[in-house]
Specification:
Chain B: Keywords: Mitochondrion, Ribonucleoprotein, Ribosomal protein, Transit peptide. Chain B: Its main location: mitochondrion. Chain B: GO terms for molecular function: structural constituent of ribosome. Chain B: Pfam families: Ribosomal_L3. The complex is a heterodimer. In chain A, 11% of the residues are buried. In chain A, strands 4-3-2-1-5 form a five-stranded antiparallel sheet, with no helix packed on it. Chain A has four helices and seven strands. Chain A is of the alpha+beta class. Chain A has a domain of 131 residues: SH3 type barrels (Roll), CATH 2.30.30.790. Chain A is extended. Chain B is mostly beta strands. Chain B folds into two domains: 165 residues, Double Stranded RNA Binding Domain (2-Layer Sandwich), CATH 3.30.160.810; 43 residues, no CATH class. In chain B, the strands form three sheets. In chain B, strands 1, 6, 9, 10, 11 and 12 form a six-stranded antiparallel sheet that branches. In chain B, strands 4-3-2-5 form a four-stranded antiparallel sheet. A two-stranded antiparallel sheet of chain B has the order 7-8. In chain B, strand 9 and strand 10 form a beta hairpin. The two termini of chain B are 23 Å apart. Classes of the chains: A alpha+beta, B mainly beta. At the A-B interface, helix 2 of A face loops of B.
Chain lengths: 248, 231
């Protein structure tokens, strides 16, 4: 039976619209990650030095896989240790900070073992490191989680035998909007001041203290043109270079 | 380990001065460094460059050389002149700090900040004794600090990049970034025997021997090797 449209004439058979296939793999490829140690700092050094350092870094990456990770991920690192019984030691912790540029790039892992907070600073390109595994992926609200030293120890404890959390390869990295509760003052740094720009702490201080901390704010800093360092073009060039070399 | 990367930029041999001419114990070779513009120097200085047939150099140094190592003026010098495992002395002008006081320049302790000191916190204090009744020559006093030639001795060469002419040298070197530097075989007695197998008199890039792009020392970790393990 044909459908009769409002005109009264029999309507021609309209095929259903074609299904739109959203290729999730292609969407994931659009996301780029360039490790922050590839970006050269601002200075008067010869760019040739950075070029050669990058070649060395890519060489090392071809042999040893350094996964993509941000501050807030939970990593397990196995290093060669001449004094350990099995000649290798494994440490699990949350990445607090990524510092350094070039071959001296470091990251600090923090964990609380038997009620003692332990932070170990590893160098990414250290030949003694045998494996880096990402156990849990989550970005946090800040780039620098040093305030975990003054937070309650439950926020820094992670199980040493934690199983790696499975994750689809091309999903967005989840952002954990956890607000951390702190130990009573005094802290190692005055985290309420706007200079640290900390968004992940639940401040339980009275309002007057928060207002007093805003006295040290420097709102002119974001308009200062001499401090600007636009890395977008440099990043693109380095991204192309690094990708070409890694594919070889 | 901390490294410095001096780069060999357009070095040419400029002139050969024999023993009798200069009146010294060994004959000398004048070597010029980085290229520069020819307009900012006097004619007499430019003559040396014109004789050697070489563009004007920003820095000219002398090397004391034995008779069997004389090189013809005009030959270029490369980083492959040195080999990994050699020991080297590096000379350069230190960073100029200007007129500095006695505490920064000579490391004097100064005076306490409080407890009644009247306007005396960074001064030298006494400069001589009563009996001497004069101030000795060479007394450490405030003055212009830096911008003088200093050498760091016995630096090991770990790696040489022949393509870009870069020498990786152990430790730190005097001078600011991108300053001109003089690199010489070490004269320390402990390293006299280590420098016995270099390319002699120098490395000629005629194409006779093809060197690989990077030359490494044996003890250095190569990035192509897998991670280290202890047994």
């Amino acid at each position: 039976s044909y459908r009769i449209c409002s005109d009264g004439k029999p309507a021609k058979f309209q095929p259903p619209p074609k299904p739109v296939i959203i290729d999730k793999q292609k969407q994931g490829e659009e996301r780029r990650f360039l490790s922050p140690e590839f970006i050269p700092p601002r200075g008067r050094t010869d760019p040739l030095k950075f070029y050669i350092e990058r070649k060395d870094m890519i060489q090392r990456r071809k042999v040893f896989n350094i996964p993509e990770f941000y501050v807030g991920h939970i990593l397990a690192v196995t290093t060669a240790d001449p004094h350990a019984s099995e000649k290798s030691s494994r440490f699990v912790g949350i990445c607090i900070q990524r510092g350094g540029k070039g071959l001296g790039a470091t990251f600090i892992l923090r964990n609380v073992i038997e009620d003692q907070g332990v932070e170990i600073c590893y160098e990414l390109y250290n030949p003694r490191i045998q494996a880096i595994e990402v156990l849990k992926l989550e970005k946090r609200l800040d780039d620098n989680l040093m305030y975990l030293r003054d937070a309650l120890p439950e926020y820094s404890t992670f199980d040493v035998n934690m199983k790696p959390v499975s994750r689809l390869d091309h999903e967005e990295i989840p952002v954990n909007k956890l607000q951390v509760r702190m130990k009573p003052k005094p802290w190692s740094k005055r985290w309420e001041r706007p200079k640290y720009n900390v968004k992940g702490i639940k401040f339980e201080l009275p309002e007057e203290k928060m207002k007093e901390a805003q006295k040290w704010s420097q709102p002119w800093l974001e308009f200062d043109m001499l401090r600007e360092y636009d890395t977008s073009k440099i990043e693109e060039k380095i991204w192309k270079e690094v990708n070409e070399e890694l594919k070889k | 380990h901390c490294f410095s990367f001096p780069k060999v930029e357009d070095c040419h041999v400029l002139r050969y001065v024999s023993k009798e001419e200069s009146g010294a114990k060994t004959s000398k070779l004048l070597v010029g460094g980085k290229n520069g513009s020819p307009f900012h120097k006097s004619e007499s200085a430019m003559e040396i460059f014109r004789e050697a047939g070489v563009p004007r150099k920003q820095k000219v140094t002398t090397f004391n050389v034995t008779d069997d190592a004389i090189i013809k003026p005009g030959t270029p010098l490369y980083a492959a002149h040195f080999r990994p495992g050699q020991f080297v002395d590096v000379t350069a002008k230190t960073i100029g700090k200007g007129f500095q006081g006695v505490m920064k320049r000579w490391g004097f302790k100064g005076q306490p900040a409080s407890h009644g000191q009247t306007k005396t916190h960074r001064r030298p204090g006494a400069i001589s004794t009563n009996k001497a009744s004069k101030v000795y020559r060479g007394k450490k006093m405030p003055g212009k600090m830096g911008n003088i030639y200093r050498t760091s001795f016995g630096l090991k060469v770990w790696r040489i990049n022949t393509k870009h002419d870069i020498i990786y040298v152990n430790g730190s070197v005097p001078g600011h970034t991108n300053c001109l530097v003089k690199v010489r075989d070490s004269k320390l007695p402990t390293y006299k025997e280590c420098n016995k197998n270099p390319p002699f008199p120098t490395f000629f890039a005629d194409g006779d021997e093809e060197l690989p792009e990077d030359l490494y020392d044996e003890e250095l970790f190569q990035f192509t090797d897998p991670s280290l393990t202890y047994t």
